[in-house]
Structures are given as C-alpha cells and as structure tokens.
Design goal:
mainly beta, Immunoglobulin-like, single chain, 5 helices, 5-stranded mixed β-sheet, 4 domains, 526 residues, 13-stranded parallel barrel
Length: 526
C-alpha cells in the first residue's frame, strides 16, 4: 500500500542563485512511500507528517512504525491531526491527470500541430490563491490567460525550462516566489506513470517546419542554410542533390536516410554537416562526393554507409576538399577514397574508416590518392584488404589502430590509379600523378601481414626520392617490407615495437633493433 507523506526540511538548502525567502524551510513536498523503512529514512533531514484527505498527522521517529502499521491496516492514525503543516509549493497545483511535476521535472500533455510542439498545462488557480499565491506566471505568461507553452521542435521541448514566478503571501509578508521546471532531466510524458510521450513526430523537418519529403527539405535547407532533422527512416528518391554554396546540416535524431536513386549528395561549394545519431546510406554509389571546393563534417554518432562503393569520395575535379570525420565511414571497397587528380584534406579524429568487401576484392579502409594532407588521430581503420594506401600527399598518423584481416601474403602490383597493395596495414606507393609522398607515424597499433609496405611497382623514375617515411613509435604486428630492398626507401624506422625483426636496411642510422623478453623487437637509439 502506498502512503502519502508531507516532508519539510530541517535544514533548508538552496542554490547560490536562489532567492532567500522569509518562510524558507516551511515549504512542503509530498512523497509516496510503500514501506516503513522508507519513512524512517526521512527523519534525519526532514519533519514528516502523514497526509490523509488534506489533513496532516505529524510523526516522530518513535511513533512512525506504529502509525504506519495502523494506516496500512486501514485504520486511522492516533496522533493529533492538524490542518496545517507547512506551505504547499507552487508546483503542487499542477495536479490534473495529464500534468505533474515531481523533483523539478515537468510532465505534461503534448500535442504536435502546425510545425510546433505544444505542452498543455493544467493549473488549479483557485487552490493556489487560497494557499497564498497570486500573479502566477509561466515563462512570463499568466496562467489564468494562457495555459499552453509552444516549442518549435522536439529538441526545444525536451530541453525546455519552464520558469514559474508568483507572489506568495503569509500574514503581513509578501514575497517573490520563483522556481523552474527543468525538463532536461527527463523527457516529457503524458501521464503520471511515466509513459513515453506519444507525439506523432514528423519524419523530416527543416528548422522546425515539417516537410513532406527529403527533396522538399533539401531545397528548403539549401535556400536557407538550414538544418534538416530526420526523426524516422526516410528515403530520398530524387536523382540530384547538389550544394553549391552556404551550409546544410543533416541531423539524424535516431533516424536514417537512404539515397535511393542519386549517385551521391554532390558538394561543389559550401559545407555539408552530418550530425546527431543515425545512418545515411548511399544505396547507388556514395553518400557524398566533393568536386570543386567544399567541406564535409561527420559527427561522432553518425555512420555514412556506401554498400555499393564508398561512403565519401573527393572527385577528379576537387580543388579544395576538406573532410572531417569523428563518426564512421563504411563502404564496400573504400571507407574513404580520393581521386588521383583531386586536391584536398581529410582529418579523422576518433573516427572509423571501414571497408566491408571480402579480401579477394582488395578493399581499402582509405584510398589516399589525391594531393593533400591526410591526418588520423586516434582513428580506427578496419578492412579485409589494406588499411591505408598513400599514393600522393602527406599522411600523418598518431594513435589509433589499423587492422587488416587478410589471410593472403602481402603483395604489391603496378597500378597507375587504383589500389596496389594487398594484406597491408600502411601502404606507400606513388600515383601516376608523380606527387611527393610523406608519411609520419606515431603511437599507432598496426596488425596486418605487412604492417608497413613501400614500393614502386610502376617503376616511376623519381618515386623513391619523392618518398619520405618517418616511424617514431607504435606497435607493428606483421613484417615491414619494401618491394625492392636495394632501390626502395631505407632508414625510416626510428622507434616502435615489431613482431618481426625489421631488416637493417629499414632502420635509421643511430638506431638498432633489440629483442625483448617477449620475442618482439624494439627500435632504440644506439
């Protein structure tokens, strides 16, 4: 059986920003208990009374068990009854079946109409006045004139703070009374049993305005630099989504987006941001491609999936592409791929690149062929082929892990464009564009048949002198090799631990390999 108790603090506390009231310490909270031990636990900090039909029965630590058992047995308390025990808090008067406030969390009846969420508040004005309150306002609006609060989107509703102010009078003293319902602590619900809100959330909206399709949402967002919020599974059936300037954010509110017919979302200028939590799938080829100048940002909770090819590519005419990844890029053949004639950068911090094709398809986590800077910080790369293959530009790796599960022997074949290495963690081989290559490696864990593999399978005349590799630390499970030891890169290992003893040709001057007690090999200064 549940019994209602009124509790009044023995030692009232407040936040530093709260107003000090003359009557502070006399305001009462109501709680429900289902066991006498719950009631007994309240006495350290509170004065306690049973509440039965608006009558208070003050309790003590000595009589609480006896009085609880009486009421639990259906009898009346034997302690003296009182009509007053303290002052009712203002939130006591939000008391309909559809609205409740408990521990500062507002729970109310919710509707969705005309692109806005509306919380309908019920407030017993007459009872509040009888208890000493007047001029009650919620968010500055008197509750006697308007008992609804509007929010333009679900986020504003869920994170809403309802400021409540009033005058409170007891005897000759009138004070300003103020508190806030903080709805960030718990989503709005529709009844006192804490059921999940049953609002008909729209599938897709732009800055709070409901759209009937992704096509209309895209057009609106492109025109207004807007945010497309996707709340459910949405299919984009159009064939062309292009961003030429400005910025568009696709925010996944635990929803998903599938590009059914479009090759990709094409960025020729401006910035495309993928935010929130959810998955965007490019069912035709890619999720997004940059040609010209443009930026793509992928937030931590987002997965971009390219089950037919790649998640993101920078195309042949990209002249200033910038891709920032904190989430996951997952593609059949490539997580990320840049065209050999493209110019651009990718920055992966705490993100993941993943290819899903079998090892016989020679997939790569990242194909880095364009002339740019590729930076991986605490990133994860997973593949059944080769982790990262640098064909041009600069590759910086710090922390993280690169894993190839390929069971084949590590090999490298000629390829003016396209991948060259098989079963490799970090592959370095010049593209037909004959750009310089720089690789800097620190603190990464690499696991592959060949942890590091450099070579010049196409026999470009200046490939070796155009290539610089610096490995200063990390753990490398798998061999370190070059395609032609006599003519390819040498002296690039200056630290790290290796499962296979590196050839002396690969160890920098002034360093040596020392076998550890575990049978691995550390590169240390001489």
């Amino acid at each position: 059986m549940s019994i209602t108790l009124a509790i009044k603090p023995k030692y009232p506390t407040r936040k530093a920003v709260d107003k000090v009231l003359v009557n502070e310490g006399n305001f009462v909270d109501l709680v429900e208990v289902t066991a006498v031990r719950q009631a007994q636990a309240l006495f350290d900090t509170s004065f306690v009374a049973m509440v039965i039909e608006d009558t208070y029965y003050p309790l003590t630590e000595e009589n609480v068990a006896e009085q609880y058992d009486l009421v639990n047995a259906g009898e009346s308390p034997t302690v003296e009854a009182k009509k007053d025990f303290g002052f009712k808090k203002l939130n006591t008067f939000f008391t309909s079946d559809q609205v409740e406030c408990y521990n500062g969390v507002l729970k109310g009846d919710v509707e969705y109409a005309d692109g806005k969420y509306v919380v309908k508040l019920a407030f017993d004005t007459e009872a509040a006045i009888a208890a000493g309150y007047s001029e009650v306002k919620i968010n500055g609006i008197e509750v006697a004139t308007k008992n609804t609060i509007e929010f333009k989107n679900a986020e504003a509703l869920i994170a809403g703070i309802f400021n409540v102010t009033a005058k409170f009078t007891q005897g000759d003293v009138t004070e300003d009374y103020e508190f806030a319902f903080d709805n960030k602590l718990n989503p709005v619900v529709v009844n006192v049993e804490n059921a999940t809100v049953s609002v008909d959330t729209p599938a897709i909206e732009v800055d709070g305005v409901v759209c009937d399709s992704f096509d209309s949402a895209w057009a609106k967002a492109v025109a207004s630099n807007g945010t497309i919020t996707i709340n459910k599974a949405v299919e984009a059936t159009g064939t062309n989504y292009t961003l030429e300037a400005g910025s568009v954010t696709i925010k996944l509110n635990n929803g998903s987006l599938t590009l059914v017919n479009a090759k990709s979302i094409l960025i020729t200028g401006g910035t495309l941001v993928f935010d929130g939590n959810g998955t965007v799938t490019g069912a035709k080829q890619y999720v997004a491609q940059i040609n010209g100048k443009g930026d793509i940002v992928v937030a931590k909770g987002v997965t971009l999936s390219g089950p037919k090819w790649a998640a993101i590519t920078t195309g042949a005419t990209a002249t200033g592409a910038n891709v920032t990844v904190h989430g996951t890029l997952e593609g059949l053949y490539y997580g990320y791929a840049s065209n050999g004639t493209s110019v651009g950068n990718i920055f992966v911090c705490d993100g993941t690149l993943k290819s899903t094709a079998d090892e016989g398809e020679e997939p790569l986590g990242g194909y880095l062929a364009g002339d740019g800077e590729y930076t991986f910080i605490n990133a994860t790369v997973e593949t059944a082929g080769t982790g990262l293959e640098l064909r041009a530009g600069t590759l910086n790796i710090k922390g993280g892990a690169i894993t190839s599960t390929c069971t084949q022997d590590a090999t490298m074949h000629a390829g003016g464009s396209g991948s060259c290495a098989v079963a490799t963690g970090i592959s370095v081989t010049q593209h037909s564009t004959k750009k310089k290559l720089v690789v800097n490696v620190e603190d990464v864990v690499v696991k592959a048949k060949a942890a590091i593999f450099e070579g010049n399978p196409s026999s470009y005349p200046t490939a070796t002198e155009d290539t610089t590799i610096n490995v200063v630390s990390g753990t490398f499970v798998g061999e370190v090799k070059t395609l032609a030891k006599d003519t390819d890169c040498k002296g690039f290992l200056k630290g790290g631990r290796y499962s296979v003893a590196p050839d002396e040709a690969y160890i920098a001057k002034g360093f040596k390999a020392v076998e550890t007690s575990m049978g691995s090999f550390d590169i240390v200064a001489e």
